[in-house]
Amino acid sequence: MAHSWHIRVSGLVAGFALLMAGSVTAGPENVDFPANYAGTYVRYTTVDKPDRDPPIIRFLYINPDALVKARPGEPLPHGTVVVMEDHEAELTEDGEPRRDADGRFIPTHEVTNVFVQEKQPGWGEEYAEDKRNGEWEYAWFRPDGSRRDDQSMDACFECHRQVADQDFTFTTAPFITRIKTATED
């Protein structure tokens, strides 16, 4: 009889361990810094941010595998990694952003912050509905790849909720639609 009880408890413990192994704890620690992203990912756009003090330019990258698998009008595939690399704008003597011939800000070479948005199956399930961004997680890194654990990702979740219809991305889904539609014509 004691042997039967031991088997049942062992079975429960094993079942619980399997359940826990399959669940994903929410948080930025799920997102790794993508080493050499500037050399291996596709830089698909830049965004000038004049509202920042000082003004910044954001370089946006996507991993090549996601770019190949992505389809216009559909959610981005699991495994998509979007990297947003911040640079301060070069400033004139008057403190205004220096601009190129097209009127775009000229970035300094120094990277100030790196933000990573990654999509994986089951990510986001632990978040309350008013915070959840599909299956996306966000992380903030220093230029050397060390994690900014001193910063909350709440602002990322809040801001990206306004583009839920674009799979919680401001620039990636529209870019996919633009390039994939153009290449199909």
From TrEMBL:
Secretion signal: which residues? 1-26
Question: Which domain of life, per UniProt?
Answer: Bacteria
- Per its UniProt record, what Gene3D superfamilies does this chain match? Cytochrome P460
Domain (Cytochrome P460) ranges: 34-171
CDD domains xrefs:
cyt_P460_fam (cd20716)
Q: Which InterPro entries match?
A: Cytochrome_P460, Cytochrome_P460_sp
| Keyword entries, A-Z | Signal
Which Pfam families does the entry mention?
A: Cytochrome_P460
* Name of this protein: Cytochrome P460 domain-containing protein
Q: Which species is this UniProt entry from? A: Halomonas stenophila
